[in-house]
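Hi Y.,

Following your request, here is the sequence exactly as I used it, all 273 residues.
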Amino acid sequence: MPPTHPDNTADTAENGNAAHADNAANPDNTAKAFLALHHGRAPADPLILPGPWDAASARIFADAGFPALATPSAGIAASLGYEDGGGTPVDEMFAAITRITRVVDIPVSADVEDGYGLAPAELVERLLEAGVVGCNLEDTDLATGQLKDARQHADWLAQVRQEAGDRLVINARVDTFLRGDTSAAAAIERARLYVAAGADVIYPLLAPVELVTELAQGVGAPLNMAAMPGGPTLAEIGELGAARITFGPGLFHEAMEALRGHAERLRSAQPGA
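Below is the corresponding structure, written out as tokens. Let me know if you'd prefer a different format.
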């Protein structure tokens, strides 16, 4: 396995431990407080969770006043030079997540894909050590690219819940739409199994806008939807029934496009360009 990313070196240890201690003492930076942000919201006021890919972007989002953050696996993978979908070595992924939680004092949820093959006890231990209060867990098997058996995945989620107790908010991603099943019924069937297993939030990735209300009414838990370019506004997504909105790697891609524009302008300004 490749070594841990060089950014996760001596200067992070002492500062990271101190920051995590401060976070633990902050009553607003707990799984309970984070979960409360999902409930009792006005329809046009969903919980907006920007997705930081490193410590610098995390600071920017926190300074802007967002109450919590949700890391995107794809954004972190790209920032480290890897492909999403299990391409990031697990030690590097958790090191990157730790660097993010180290610099903010608001709740952070981490996208850890399908759990990277870790047993529930180890997965929970590493998440808590990284300083997060929530996690995103998908039901695609990254080794095969296929949906996991729903009941087996629910059993695994139940084990994660048992290990985590009330220390993590579990956002269970449902990948039926991603894998070609366009029916709300299939997503709701899986979602209900996951909620029964202990999931707090359901995330039907790539669900079409016209199904959001049906999904929200059918899953029995707060619904996480992704904001898509050219799609409804954040308030409109909330009005359809979403309690929480995330962005996947979208904000990372926007930042990289802005940087690309700066680079092109700098290059074109050079003599002889």
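DSSP finds eleven helices and ten strands in the chain.

Thanks again,
Q.
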